[in-house]
Amino acid sequence: MPSRESYEVHKEEKSLVQKAKREANQEDILVAALGMSMGPQKPPATFWQPLKLFAYSQLTSLVRRATLKESDRTPKSEKVHNFKVHTFRGPHWCEHCASFMWGLMAQGVKCADCGLNVHKQCQSLVPNDCKPDLRHIRKVYSCDLTTLVKAYNTARPMVVDMCIREIESRGLKSEGLYRISGFSDSVEEVKMAFDKDGEKADISVNAYEDINIITGALKLYLRDLPVPIISYDAYPGFIEAAMLTDPEKKLEAFREALALLPPSHRETLKYLMAHLKRVTQNEKFNLMNAENLAIIFGPTLMRAPNLDAITALNDIRYQRQVVELLIKKEDVLF
Hints:
Number of domains: 2
Number of strands: 3
Strand order of the largest sheet: 1-2-3
Number of helices: 13
Order of helices and strands: HHEEEHHHHHHHHHHH
Distance between the termini: 88 Å
Strand content: under 5%
Largest sheet: 3 strands, antiparallel
CATH architecture of the largest domain: Orthogonal Bundle
């Protein structure tokens, strides 16, 4: 009768044989997948490890790309990739064409918002299907609006929602609302809190008693946007609409201009205008009407796209008219 010790040795040998067979099968599959041909003599074990890493990297890239294509085929809001030249460590494959990225430095580009890796020559072929990942979003202020809402999966930026809720809960009757500035150091504190804690930022009355600090933080967020709420593409349409004198044609032109806004921008503008309308309904207390608010928010929501100084200066009065009409006609335009 065999001893327990010899039984354990036999069991271990059998396990090692099965493992060797599995690895041999994996190696045969890997050779076939890479289109390689091997002679009768097998290469040493050290030959296979880099190839397995290569294959794993390629498989990961292909699966990731397939996932991007399968999920959300018709996104609510298109998002352009924010590609930056990148030096990759270790083997990498292009997630668009699935070809190897050759070179030791600056082999390709990486999306700063979602982490997609592609060749430099492939970046123009990639569809506008960026799905930002919170791991790549380093701050809230100065972050592209569409990038932020897609990363947090919200309709509007958290700063806009949270600040407006706070203002409406305790500040609608505050005299000079949005006209009076809050203490700049405190406004900067709120900004840093959003950048650090996101939705967990504390902007309650216990943290900031002065409501003007919260209005200042909201205005600063809107000013810091790399693409303003009224985007550069839609800007000319709004200015042209403001120049019209016929009321019906003007409203129709405004609707056409609103249709040019990215969905997240339009949703944010709609929410903001409804809020400013409620501010004007408390004019008896806060002394702020649509014209006053338009003077404040005109340059904040609209910025002239690469226009000369004289044209930009002339546009200021039309910017005010645009925002004033959006506030007054909020109920029929949105």
